[in-house]
Amino acid sequence: MAFLNMLYHVLFFPGIIFLFAVSTFAEYYDRKLYARLQNRVGPPWFQPLADFIKLLGKEEIIPSKADAAMFKLMPIIALTSVITAFFLIPPWSRFTHFSFEGDLIAIVYLLTIPTFTYFLAGWYSTSLYAMIGSARSLFQLFAYEIPLFLGVLAPAVLANTWSINGIMRFYNHHPGYWPLNIIAFVVTLIALQGKLERVPFDIAEAETEIVAGPFTEYSGKLLAFFRLAIDIEMVVGSALLSAVFLPFWLNLSPLLTVIASLIKIFFIITLLCVLRTIVARIKINQMISFCWNYLVPAAFLQILINLVLKEALLK
Amino acid sequence: MRFSGRVIFEALGSLFKKPNTVLYPAQKVPKAPRLRGRIVFDASKCIGCMMCVKDCPARAIAINKVGDKQFDCVMHLERCVYCGQCADSCMKKALEVTPEFELAQLDKSKLTVHYKNPNEQNNPQSEPEIKA
Amino acid sequence: MTNKVTIPIGPQHPALKEPESFSITLEGENIVHSSVRLGYNHRGIEKAAEQRTYIQDIYLIERVCGICSHSHSTCFIQAVEEIGKFEVPKRALYIRTLIGELERLHSHLLWLGVAGHEIGFDTLLMYTWRDREIVMDLLQMLTGNRVNYGINTIGGVRRDITAEHVKQILKDVDTLEERTKYYIKLGTQEVTLAQRLSGVGTLSHDDAVKLGAVGPTARASSVDRDIRRDDPYASYADVKFNVVTDNHNDVYGRTLVRLGELMVSYSIIRQILDKLPEGPVSVRVPRKIPVGEALSRYEAPRGEDVHYVKANGTDKPERVKLRAPTLANVQAVSKMLEDGHLADVPIVIAAIDPCFSCTDRITVTVNNRASGSSQVMDWEGLRRMGIEHYRKRGIDFRNIKGIK
Questions:
Q1: ω into residue C277 within 30 of 0, thus cis?
Q2: Residue C123 touches partner A, C-beta closer than 8 Å
C-alpha cells in the first residue's frame, strides 16, 4: 500500500505527469507574457505541447565524429535530475515523504547537474559552435552559482535549519519574518535567471552569435527532452524560490495550499519573464564582473543581517 | 540618470493595450486605393499598339489579334511584378491596376489569365482557352 | 588557451540577414584574425540591364535591394536624365525627395530593430518594427506598394500626392517623432545597451578615410561627408538640414548618428511638404537616349550610392555599373573586428547596416598558379572565358534555341 502510494506520488502528483503539465503551461505563460509585453499576440495555449510532439517525430541526426552514447545520454540525465529535484520541494508543508535534513543543498546540487549536461552535450558534439557554447556555459557557472547558493542560504541561516520543511515550519511559526529576506530574494532571482540561461545571461545559447550553443547539433527527441528539462528547471527553480522566500499561506486545506503554491510559482515566473524583456544580453566578462561585484556582496550583506537578527530577535 | 530596464514602463503599458498584430486571414487590413495588385484588361479599348508588351520588364503580358481590330490579352501572373508600367504606357487606358493582391494558387496553370474579347471571331490563331 | 579555432560566420548564420562569409579566427573569446568573402548574392543585374530598355531597367534596378530600392532607382534615373539633358519638373523632384526621406525613415527604424535583435534585446526589435509599419502604410498609400515603390519614371514621377496625403503624412511624422525621442532616451540611458554598444567596433577617423567608409559608418568617426549637402540632387538644395556626425568612433556612435538622422529626416519632410510647388509631375522623354555617359551619386540610408550609365543612342543602355555603399563599408569590418570578442561580431557587422544584395558585383582576377602572375579580366575576356569553359565540356550555346 505504501508502495502504491509512493508510485502514485512519483508518477502523478507531484510527480512526472503533474510536472509535465505545469512546466508546459509555464512555458506557454512565459511566452505569452513576453509577447504581450512587446505588444504582440503570442502563441496559443497548446504551443509548447505541439512543439514537444513535433520534435518527437523528427529525425535525429548525430554528427559522425560525436560520441553517440554520451550524445544520447545527456538529455536523459538532465531530465532525471530536474525531476528528482522537484520531489524534494514540498507543495505544502505537511508533506514529508521525500524530505530530509540538508535537502536545500541537495536541490541546489541537483540543479547544477543540468548545466554540466549542457556542457558535456556541447563538448561531445564536436561541432565548433557547440564547443564554444559549452565553454561559455561553464564560464557562466562560475558567475551565478555562488550568488544563488548564498541567496538561498540567507533564510536558512535565520531559520537555523538546512531542510526546506524546517524553513517553512519556522516561518509559519514566526509570520512577518519573511520580508526581511528581500535582498536575498532579489539576488537569488537574478542568479536564477543566470542558471536558467535566459536573457540577460543567455550567453551560452546566444542565437545570433553561435547559432544554438551546446544544442546546435541536437534534433528530434533528444532536443525535445532537453527543452523539457529546461522548462522543468524553470518550474523547479521558481518552486525553490517560492518555498524559501515566500512561506506564507501554508495553513489552508491541502487543495488550497497547492493552488497557493502554484500562484507563488507563477508570480516568480512573471518576474523572470519581465526581467527577460527589459534588458539586452551582456557579454561573458561583463556578466562575471557584474555577479562578483554586485550580487555576491549583496548576498553576504543579507547573511550578515540575518545573523545579527538571529541573535537579536530570537534569543 | 542611467539605470537598467527603462523599457519596463513601456512594456507594462503594452500589456494593457491591444496587440498590434493583425490576425490575418481572420482579420483583414483595409486596402489602400493605390495598391498595385492584379492588372485587368478591357478589350473594347485596346488598339493593338503593343506598347505594354514592349515596356513590361518581366515579359508577363501578351496581346493577340483575334479579329479585325480586336485583341485579347494573356497575362502570366507568376511573372508579373505588379509595377503598373503597362497601365501607364497604354494610351487608350485599356489596362487598369486593381488592388487585388490575394492571388496565390496551388496550381500553376491557374496563374495564366486569359482576358477574352467578347467580339472574338473563332480565329484559329487565338490562344487555347485557359480558365482564369 | 593558445589553440586557435576558426569559426565561420556565414554564409548561413542567424546573425546575418543575407548570405556572406566571414571567417573569424579565435583564441578563447578574442578575435585574432578575420576575413571577408563576398559574392553569394550575385545575380548578374548589370548584364541584365544591358538587354532591357531604359523603361524596363527602372524596375530591374529598383529590385537590386528591397530596403534601399528607391535610392537605386533614383540614382539610375538621375544618370539617364543627365545624359539626355531632360528638365525634370520641380514638383517631381520634391516628390522624389519625399519618398527618399520616407525610405530613410523605414531603413533606420529597421536597422534599430536588427541591432536590438543582434544584442539579444528583442523588445527593441518588436517596438521599432511596429513603428516602421506606420511608414510602410504611408508608402503604400502614396505609391502603391510597401517595398519597391515604382514611383520613378524617366522624366519625373508616376503618381501625384493629394492634400489628404499631405495631412496624413504630417500626422504620422508627428507620431514617429515622439517614438524616436523615446528611442533616443532609451539608447542613451539603458545600461545593458551601452555596455554592448560602447567600445565595440572602433574605427578611427584616419582609418575610416583610408578604407573608404561612407554613410553613417563614416559619420560616426567624424568624417563629415553627406552627398545631400556636398553634391545636392533632387530638391536637397532647397531644404535646410544638419549633417549628423559623432566622435565616438564605435557602434554606439553609429547608433546615435542614425537616430539623429531620423530626427533630421522629420524636419526635411516637413519642409518639403511645406514648400511643395504646383505643376506637372513628369515630362515626356524620347525612348532613345542620346550618346553620352553620366555618373550620379545618391545618399542612400547606408551611404553613398554611385551609378554609372553609358548610353549609345538606342533604347537600351550600353553599360550600367552600380557601386553600393555596403561595398565601401565592408572593407572596414576586418579592421573593426581587430581585438574584439566573438560576442561583438554580430553587432559590428550589423552596425555597418549590411545589404549584401546591393553589394555583389564581380571583378574577375585570374591567378595563374603556375606562373604566379595574375591578370584582371574585362567584359569581353570574361565572356570569352565562359564560352570556352562550356565548349570544352561539349556544350555549345549557339545551338540552344532562344539565345542570341
A1: no
A2: yes
**Subunits adjacent to chain C (3 or more Cβ pairs under 8 Å):** A, B
* Choices 3.30.1330.30, 3.30.565.10, 1.10.10.10, 1.10.645.10: CATH for C45-357: 1.10.645.10
Per run of 10 residues, the mean pLDDT along chain B (length 132 residues) is 73 86 84 88 90 91 88 91 91 91 89 85 49 42
Q: Are C130 and C145 in contact (CB under 8 A)?
A: no
Compute how many other C-beta atoms are within 10 angstroms of the C-beta atom of residue A176.
Answer: 8
For chain A, what is the largest distance between any 2 Cα atoms, rounded to a whole number of angstroms?
A: 65
Instruction: Answer yes or no: is pLDDT of C208 > 80.
Output: yes
State yes or no: pLDDT of C147 exceeds 50.
yes
User: Do A283 and C196 make contact, defined as CB atoms within 8 angstroms?
Assistant: yes
DSSP-derived secondary structure letter, A92: S
Contact at CB, A278 and B20, closer than 8 angstroms: no
| pLDDT for A244 beyond 50 | yes
Q: Is the pLDDT of residue C188 over 50?
A: yes
In tens, the pLDDT along A186-214 reads 999 999 999 998 888 888 887 777 788 88
**Which residue, among C3, C192, C196, C252, would best test binding to A if mutated, counting the most A CBs under 10 Å from its CB?**
C192
Contact list, A200 vs chain C (CB under 8 Å): 120, 192
Can you tell me the distance from the alpha carbon of B1 to that of A299, in angstroms, rounded to the nearest whole number? Answer: 26
Q: Per the CB < 8 Å rule, is B20 touching A40? A: yes
Structural domain count of chain A = 1
Q: Would you list the domain boundaries of chain B?
A: 30-115
Q: CB–CB of C223/C209 below 8 Å?
A: yes
C-alpha to C-alpha distance for A13 and A6, rounded to whole angstroms = 10
Checking DSSP bridges between strand B95-97 and strand B39-41, what pairing results, if any? antiparallel
**Was domain B30-115 assigned CATH 3.30.420.40?**
no
Q: Is A255 on the interface with B (CB under 8 A)?
A: no
Please give the pLDDT value at position A24: 94
Domain definitions of chain C by residue range: 45-357, 365-399
Which residues on C lie below 8 Å from B5 (Cβ)? 190
pLDDT tens figures, C231-276: 888 889 989 999 999 988 889 999 999 999 999 999 999 999 999 9
pTM of the shown model: 0.89
Partners of residue A199 in chain C, C-beta under 8 Å:
120-122
Contacts of A131 in chain C (CB under 8 A): 5
